[in-house]
Specification:
oxidoreductase; two-stranded antiparallel ribbon; NAD(P)_OxRdtase_dom_sf; 15% strand; 305 residues; alpha/beta; NADP_OxRdtase_dom; oxidoreductase activity; Aldo/keto reductase
């Protein structure tokens, strides 16, 4: 998402170099959405994958978010007929005959999740999709979806600053054998970022006014432990998410080559039980101020109900 203007402009050539650096370092998971840059991100990925072995990459795609000509979000469409239509355009933009994981970006309140998952399951049978995923849905919706077809993973925000999934959502995923791809592990740059408030960050309550001052001071508590581990604050936060279970994969966005190196190198950071407890004492659950999305977007999240 960050390679398609979500956090400010970025040159496409630089975006391709970032993807290449990630793949050359052994990365395999590319997470995108057909609405990232209104198709731009998928076309960027297609360009980056030219000449490479498609089977060495896992393409995870979100669909359903509708945009207007001005880029504004217009709601979610996850009707069965729309599912196949969205995928048709995605396959064309990515230049592939299948995607590895396909998931509705959000729950469509007007469409039973069973209908949406059933439509994706038909695409699995036809070979256009390998696995079915979900995104930002609650425990009840996860159960209903899993009763229709196997669900491989749930994509949802999870970080030192956002831990609500630990109550119901994560236990249900583990009960049903569903993995978690955790996004927002750096809280959109609050953790280890430059501090710049631009693009999507400007809309986030956590980056506004006194909330930003409080949250910045909160994250600064990590600096001493990070230095002791010979790691950056960002690497420490990524390592914390990774340490929460083998069924959790941190999804980290990189916009610059140096950020790719930092992300990959976070894999060397190991945390003892004592250090994990120390981190959770430094940033207690619920300590961050401000919702993770603007109020209108929060109201549309099934995971928050």
């Amino acid at each position: 998402m960050g390679l398609s203007g979500a956090y400010g402009p970025l040159d496409d050539d630089e975006g391709v170099r970032v993807v290449h650096a990630y793949l050359d370092a052994g990365g395999t998971l590319l997470d995108t959405g057909d609405f990232y840059g209104s198709g731009h991100n998928e076309m960027l990925i297609r360009r980056a994958l030219q000449g490479r072995d498609r089977d060495e990459v896992v393409l995870s795609v979100k669909f359903g978010a509708m945009r207007g000509p001005d880029g504004g979000l217009l709601g979610i469409d996850a009707r069965p007929a729309a599912v196949g239509n969205f995928l048709t355009y995605t396959l064309q933009r990515l230049g592939t005959d299948h995607v590895d994981v396909y998931r509705p970006a959000r729950l469509d309140p007007s469409v039973p999740i069973e209908d949406t998952v059933g439509a994706i399951a038909e695409l699995v049978e036809k070979g256009y999709v390998r696995h079915i995923g979900l995104s930002e849905v609650g425990a009840e919706t996860i159960r209903r979806a899993a009763a229709v077809a196997p669900i491989c993973d749930l994509q949802i925000e999870y970080s030192l600053l956002t831990r609500d999934i630990e109550d119901e959502i994560l236990p249900v995923c583990r009960e049903l054998g569903i993995g978690v791809t955790a996004y927002g592990v750096l809280s959109r740059g609050l953790i280890g970022g430059s501090g710049a408030v631009e693009g999507a960050r400007a809309m986030s309550p956590r980056f506004q006014g006194a909330n930003l001052e409080h949250n910045t001071a909160l994250v600064a508590r990590l600096e001493e432990l990070a230095a002791a581990k010979d790691a950056s604050v960002a690497q420490l936060a990524i390592a914390w998410v990774a340490a929460q279970g083998e069924d959790i994969v941190p999804v980290v966005g990189a916009r610059r080559l140096a950020q790719v190196a930092t992300m990959i190198d976070s894999g060397r950071v190991t945390l003892s039980a004592e250090e994990l407890a120390q981190l959770e004492a430094l940033i207690p659950r619920g300590a961050a101020r401000g919702d993770r999305y603007p109020s209108q977007a929060m109201a549309q999240l099934d995971s928050e109900r």
